[in-house]
Amino acid sequence: MGVSAKLPLDGVRVIDLTRILSGPFCSMLLGDMGAEVIKIESRDGDPVRAQGHHKDGLSWYFAGFNRNKKSVVLDLHTDEGKAALTRLLEGADVLVENYRPGVLARMGFSQARLEALNPGLVTASINGFGSEGPYTERPAFDFIAQAMSGFMSVNGPDAAHPMRAAQPISDLIAGLYSAFGIVSALRGRDRDGLGQHVETAMVNGALSFMAYLASEHFVTDRNPVQTGNDHPLVAPYGLYETADGQIAIAPSNEQILQKLLSEIGLPTLMQDPRFDSNDKRFARRAELHDILDAAMATDSRDNWIARLNRAGVPAGKVQSLQDVFTDPQIVAQEMAIDVHHEGHGNVRMLGFPVKLSRTPCAARLPAPKLGEHTDAVLSAAGVSPMATGREIS
Amino acid sequence: MGVSAKLPLDGVRVIDLTRILSGPFCSMLLGDMGAEVIKIESRDGDPVRAQGHHKDGLSWYFAGFNRNKKSVVLDLHTDEGKAALTRLLEGADVLVENYRPGVLARMGFSQARLEALNPGLVTASINGFGSEGPYTERPAFDFIAQAMSGFMSVNGPDAAHPMRAAQPISDLIAGLYSAFGIVSALRGRDRDGLGQHVETAMVNGALSFMAYLASEHFVTDRNPVQTGNDHPLVAPYGLYETADGQIAIAPSNEQILQKLLSEIGLPTLMQDPRFDSNDKRFARRAELHDILDAAMATDSRDNWIARLNRAGVPAGKVQSLQDVFTDPQIVAQEMAIDVHHEGHGNVRMLGFPVKLSRTPCAARLPAPKLGEHTDAVLSAAGVSPMATGREIS
User: Fold this and answer.
1) Which one, out of A121, A259, A365, B18, has a CA that is 20 to 30 A from the CA of B168?
2) Chain pair A-B, CB pairs under 8 angstroms
3) pLDDT value for A390
4) Before A236, cis peptide (omega within 30)?
5) Which PANTHER family match (chains A, B) (predicted)?
6) CB interface of B with A, residues 221-240, below 8 Å
């Protein structure tokens, strides 16, 4: 099982017209799996190069989402730039873009032209609402997708306060679905030689994460209710007070609930006529919460977490990012990695959530300087240096 | 571009030992892409068969996450059941499981044995914390993963109230990453004939969704702050009051902010010395919020949404699921589909977030009855009927 085996997407060339987050996250996932990702940038570069905190002139946000990519500067408003892109697409396996629907076609690269140029090309679009329907022309943004997808309607403390997740979840979900769709389409292409178009919309992706909340809606025609950290159907469940802080407890069935109650010194509570069914426990949720808080005030959070997990009860603490990255489990999983950037030293970024045993993902390249690979990539593709305005790089 | 072309994962056989949500979501994604998914169930079946609202004896939650699968009942506590599983694995391309780390090996299917049985097998594990590190033996649950990954530390109204997302995000993120990893590993296998192990942990997946919040933490060593629906760095941004309800507005740069202010009748606000920089606007966020609310009280929510989007300003409303599934865009995107289940009529479920142009995903099979395919699958694999206790089906 030599780790010198080639990565799964080794030999796949991705032309990446994306910027900001959803698309660059997708192309980073492809690069992490071994693809050669050519990030095409205007002379101003991806706006994220200027966003977030900088250190020694480098945005760590940009660095963290553009590893394993090469940067080529092209002015796609010029015929020369379009000709260079055309040449690159002829030799590529994948094109990824996150313009609004229609923009790429107006630039001269309709789906029909792309298929004519390269029938094996997998073309992927990530956008806000999809390219069919009344909202296709609307500008998209993560916050709006969270609002319109139903995500916010159940996130937050109560029905009067719908709330976005602070994380840009609709960007990330769309990027991840797109990567899955692209690799699937590549596998289809490997068999019959034909590419196809892969489209992923932020609203659709966020909506798909409603999961069983959507199933329940379909079967009951009711909207799911917001319950904050409580479970909409089960009690006890949620955050409880210990001697020195809160812990999250999620006993997912009655057997595990009995283990919890035994461990916290209330072994007969499920025989109490007030609490002898989930319906009763749910109806008296506040009262039950107080009883559990009182029982757990007798020991520290860390001790309870150890004791409950030993007993088979899912339990943990709410961790800040400072907690997370010093947590020995997260350290063991290498979920923060340091990548050397020439002239900037090591830049810390998130590690790889998908662990492959034989061909593990690695940071083979740091995030590129703007236009760093313009000469090398265009020369190899036979594009004349004069044609592209690459003095910008 | 005939749509009769084979789906990307046509011919891929997945043996699916998963239950509840993270694993079944992953295997459904593979099935939607064309894989043949053989869901192995105990005689009691996946617990989700008994969860959620039922209609005519069918859980719509189960139906919605188990389409495009076949069900085979095996008792894996018996030698006969293990022998049948062995035979199935010899002829499979993928094994997916979401037991706690070590459980499958204790059942007799260590990674070494699986490789010996079938060197081309891609084996995928979805678990809570990963199989290396101090917490590998802990029971996992979505709520705990949300707490420990940092997700809850920034979700919610303020720092005193960390909050889970109501959606089972860590299950879904892990399932989606796993599907991406599996298809990638399959593509590697198509080249060199060798499978490998693909592991995805719920905590790692949820942590990866901290995205630029993690980047900012790494570069500043500070924890991100909770800001509810406000943006941590930019104002205005958030939910605003119109004549008849709230709208979400996200002007992502100053050009778009100027478009917003012009459209709502405040074209010179950015020249006001109180608001002529983002820093000032951010410092006077509450005051600015009141000014925007007053300006937008002059028209209805739907009108503002139309006007602002026409002007290029991302804007939308917070939609409940009832709103979502009557939204003409969601309808156009076919994000709710009806699948006929024999004896149960049509069951409504979420559609396909990844749209493939040439080989679109489809519900080729409804969710299976428990053991519905036991005879057919085992007979085809040459397993003797007497050996499996399949009378249970």
Assistant:
1) A259
2) 474
3) 47
4) yes
5) SUCCINATE--HYDROXYMETHYLGLUTARATE COA-TRANSFERASE
6) 221, 223-224, 226-229, 231-232, 237, 239
Residue A361 pLDDT > 60, yes or no? yes
Interface of A with B in 247-276 (CB under 8 A): 248, 250, 252-253, 256
Rounded CA-CA distance A214/B195 in Å is: 35
Cβ–Cβ gap B172/A200 under 8 Å: no
Residue B4 has a pLDDT of 62
Position A252 scores a pLDDT of: 84
Percent of chain A with pLDDT over 70: 97
B45 and B69 Cβ atoms separated by less than 8 Å:
no
d(CA A156, CA A246): 19
Backbone angles phi, psi at A203, to 5 degrees: -65, -45
How much is the average pLDDT of A222-231?
92
Q: What token pair was written down for A286?
A: 């506040």
Q: Which helix (H) or strand (E) holds B206?
A: helix B202-208
Of all residues in chain B, the one with the smallest CA distance to A318 is B147
Q: Which residues of B touch A217 (CB under 8 A)?
A: 321-322, 325
pLDDT band at A1 (very low <50, low <70, confident <90, very high): very low
Would you tell me which residues 30-59 of chain A have a C-beta closer than 8 angstroms to some C-beta of chain B? 33, 51-55
**Structural tokens at position B187:** 């593509």
**Rounded distance between C-alpha atoms, residue A70 and residue A367, angstroms:** 8
The series of mean pLDDT values per 10 residues for chain B, 393 residues long, is 76 98 98 98 97 95 98 97 98 98 97 98 98 96 97 92 96 98 97 97 98 97 92 91 96 94 97 96 96 97 97 97 98 98 97 98 98 97 69 42
If contacts are CB pairs under 8 Å, which of residues 166-185 in chain A contact chain B?
166-169, 171-173, 176-181, 183-185
Question: What pLDDT sits at residue A386?
Answer: 54
Report pLDDT for B159.
85
Residue A144, pLDDT > 50, answer yes
Question: Which residue among A54, A231, A340, A373 is the active-site one?
Answer: A231
Handedness of CA A229, A230, A233, A235 (dihedral sign): positive
Mutation pick from A3, A44, A143 vs chain B, by most beta carbons of B within 10 Å, is A143
Chain B interface includes A133 (CB < 8 A): yes
The residue ranges of every structural domain in chain B are: 13-210+332-392, 251-313
Helix locations, A193-348, DSSP H: 202-208, 211-220, 254-263, 278-283, 285-296, 301-310, 321-324, 328-332
Min Cα distance A105 → chain B (Å) is 16
Q: Which of B313, B327, B331 sits opposite A139 (nearest CB)?
A: B313
**B239: CB partners within 8 A, 6+ apart:** A162, B229, B246, B247, B248, B249, B318
B98 lies within 8 A of chain A by CB: no
With a threshold of 0.95, tell me whether the complex ipTM lies above it.
Answer: yes
Query: Whole-angstrom Cα distance, residue A41 to residue A18?
Result: 9
Alpha-carbon Rg for chain B, nearest whole angstrom, is 25
Chosen CATH of B13-210+332-392 out of 3.40.50.10540, 3.40.50.150, 3.40.50.12780, 1.10.1040.10: 3.40.50.10540
* Yes or no, beta carbons of B358 and A194 under 8 Å apart: yes
The alpha carbon of residue A78 is apart from the nearest alpha carbon of chain B, in Å, by 24
